[in-house]
Amino acid sequence: MPERPSPQNFLPLKTDAFYVLLVLIQGERHGYAIMRDAADRSDGAVRLQAGALYRLLRRMLDEGLVVESQRRPAADVDDERRRYYRVTPLGRRTLAAEADRMASLAAAARAVLRQGPALA
Amino acid sequence: MVDFQTPSPSNAERLYRLLLHLYPADFRRAFQRELVEAFRDQRRAARRDGVRGTAFWPVILQDLLTQALSERATATWRATWLAAPFDPDRSLVSGVLLALRLTALRLAIRRLMRSPNFTVTTVVVLALGIGATTGVFSVVNGVLLRPLAYAHADRLVALGHTVDVSGKTRVDESDASILLYQEHARAFSGVGAYRDRDANLGAVQGDPTPAVRVSIASVTANLFDVLQVQPSLGRTFEPGEDRVGAAPVAVISDQLWRSRFRGRVSAIGKRIVVDGESREVIGVMPPGFAYPHSSSVLWIPIAFDAAHANAASFGYLGVARLGDGVTIERAREDLERLIPQTLVEFPSGIPPAMWAHANVHATVMSLRDSITGGVSRVLWILLGSMCLVLVIACANVAGLFLVRGDSRQDEFAVRSALGSGNAEIVAQCLSEAFILAAASGFVGVTMTIPTVSLARRFGSSLSVPRLDQVDVDGRVMLFALAITVLCAVLISVVPVLRVRLVPIAEVLRRAGRGSSSGEGIKHFARSTLVVAQIALALVLVSASGLLGRSFARMRQVEPGFDVNGIDVSRLVIPNASYPTAASAIQLYSRLLEHVRALPGVSDASITNWVPLTDDHQDNIIGIEDHPVQPGAVPRVHVLANVEGRYFGTMGIPFLAGRTFSALDPRRPATEVVVSKAFAERYWPNSSPLGKRVRQGIAGRWFTIIGEVGNVHFDALTEPVNDALYFPLATQDTDRVTVPCYVALVVRHTSALDDISAIRAAVHAVDSSMPTYDDRSMASVVSAASARARVMLVLLAAASALAIILGTVGTYGAMAYRVSLRRQEIGVRVALGARPADVRRMISRNGVTLGIAGVATGLLCAVVVTRLVRTLLYDVSPTDAPTLCAASLVILAATFFSSWIPARHAASISPADALRNR
What we know:
Distance between the termini of chain A: 57 Å
Order of helices and strands of chain A: HEHHEEH
Radius of gyration of chain A: 17 Å
Number of helices of chain B: 28
Number of strands of chain A: 3
Number of helices of chain A: 4
Radius of gyration of chain B: 35 Å
Strand content of chain A: 5-15%
CATH superfamily of chain A: Winged helix-like DNA-binding domain superfamily/Winged helix DNA-binding domain
Oligomer: heterodimer
Shape of chain A: globular
Structural class of chain B: alpha+beta
CATH architecture of chain A: Orthogonal Bundle
Number of domains of chain A: 1
CATH class of chain A: Mainly Alpha
Largest sheet of chain B: 11 strands, mixed
Number of strands of chain B: 24
Number of domains of chain B: 5
CATH topology of chain A: Arc Repressor Mutant, subunit A
Largest sheet of chain A: 3 strands, antiparallel
Largest interface: A-B, 16 and 23 residues
Helix content of chain B: 40-55%
Distance between the termini of chain B: 50 Å
């Protein structure tokens, strides 16, 4: 049995991966829905294209951050050709760890900025 | 461009599916369905949002191309270095070390000698690439990279200003600004200025040589100190010698000293006559010194007059040396600080509100960049295209190398089995590649030397600056060495990777069956090389196609005058000999009288601006019935002073009104003729005749008496100028002015060469007045597009080379593939395949490669052709007809090169193919 992977191994997350996790935490999505929601959530800053997304998804699948969902959404919205993805517990913990990391960075920066510039 | 709204939906999707083949097979298998699904969603969304296909496809294609290529790169990387149970670094490093041993090199030479066809082909192809690239680099090096030949040349800067005046954005320096900066600027160790011109150099004491035209410069006294150049004899100017009323002195060039004074030390103190004024020679500059032009031979001090300095007359070029540790940006800020002071120290009769409105700002740029700015882009583009040719050549040779490696695969396998390591096999490939590249590099550099002299000759006719600096120096040799090594690496990388990728056991297992191993990888490598060659060739062909189309457009531009049958001859009337306007007018009248009387001459006239040459004259023009806001600056227009019969002589059509009356020294005209564009700008719906205009803000009003057709003054590629024509003698507020730098334009009826007759006529009027720069108007016009033409020829040559190399490369790959599939084809034919089927099968292969190459190439072309945008006239860098035509040419070439192997394949007899088994 291999060692349980730690979220720390994946930090810092690339912006694209961060948004993929963020979108998937809200529920299972297929590829295009991930692209669309990531763009919405980032106010258009993250514009994933299909090729980039699927290469990223493949890596995140390999790393165990996301998995392909076996459950299908409600029959009326389901499109059986599509594959749906969801976050693994590891993915969830990784996102949380990344958020903590960024929060502490932001706090450090704010603390210095509030003091104003050092006198030269 | 594809518009996704017009074709049926499945077409776009089919195209996308086809393009997905750019991804490696395993990735495609895993995600193809979903990629297509996502593509469909995206299209639907784009259509809903009203995004046009031209905006949609580039995004899709960019994603596809970058992701597919990086996926392929990652896959190859994994397959090569990660999956194989083998220490990569050791075999590669020891392979390189082995390859460079003398015995290995000797063996490689022996092996190459055994296949002379391969060796000669490779060396010729690579040498062409290396030679062309190094040749262009030597020009880039001399013109753009070499520091100027002055001490600490990186501290030298050119000064200028930007302004917000309609019709004008950049101006040089005025006497006021130079005096101000010299006095108050702190960022510089010295601020100098100059003004270059042509002058009549009269007879020298004791030397009977007649008067000649020379290129001279009036300079500030400190200019030589700013450049940090010492005279080889005598002294240069002293402070104060550049003020009005100072003693007339001159510094001469080494060349003038040798030709006119026979290199005698006694030249110092002798007198020399410049434009009719006698000057004392005080110094001789060292050999090789020529500033601002390579033709400058004589320097006289500027005569600044601080009391009458005019802040708005930007007639000087500023050059300065930055102080220690001062950056260009700091220097600019320093000058910015001073600009508001200008009118305080030199009121110049300019309303302060107008000065503020003109928004004058200082510019400081490296002196070298200011000299080479015009050609640097052209040269870099040329170097870039030569590098493309080189890469194509490398891909081509790599393809040959791969085939060669194949034929020796069994040998390699047996060697491996007998215990020779991978390193040794790598070493064999590398040592051959190094020998080939070295030989090509040697031949290429040898070719560079004649190329350089050719470039010098060509370039000087295109007024490329600093050509005297172009040479094969250490840096060029280093460059040649670097690209030679690069070639060696590029051509050997594929075969070396192959060694890594193909397990020995498999080679041996298949050896008996006569089929070659590692088919997939090898196939991919060869296809990639072919696709790369096709794509790069398409880039070059597109670029030269665009230039060709732009050149054709340029040829269609009407200059605005009748080009044929006109000769131009320049002259300067020295102030000293013709001090008054009246005397100058008299001279011009007599000149015209003489020239018009010549047999074969139908008319002649005088102008101070020959269109499409470096001549330039402009001024702010006030329009009586278009007053500007108080404080605003009226628009700047170009203007020429012409004699009344100029329009008829040049064949510029008269649209309304009349021309100036004959020259009369007692009655200078206050009349002006305007171009159609000028009239349309101000009076679009009425006649300009009778309206009044003036130069500057307080000059005398001139009445418009005629309207003539438009002329391209600056360049054929620039819009026609809204120009004004003033009479040769103009009455300003208190005095009559007559230009002293003029050109005689002569229209003749016979086709005879009249230049010498014109020269004689001028000589008859004043023997001390030489004519210079004599040429026909047709040659002026053709020189105006010469740079575009040469660029076109060079790029066309590069693309022709690229097409040939690409075609040969495709042919080689296809022919080789046919030879590998000989038995299979034999079996097919035996089983009843018709020759047409076989032909189709093979040529489909080639055309698929061609389409992949063209698709990749088009994507690259769209990006790369943007770089030539500034060289294009009236053609968009993504001009669809040109790109289509280029693609068709390339596709046709690919089809042709796969058709021959296809025909060959169709003629394979099954009996032969199977017997050879």
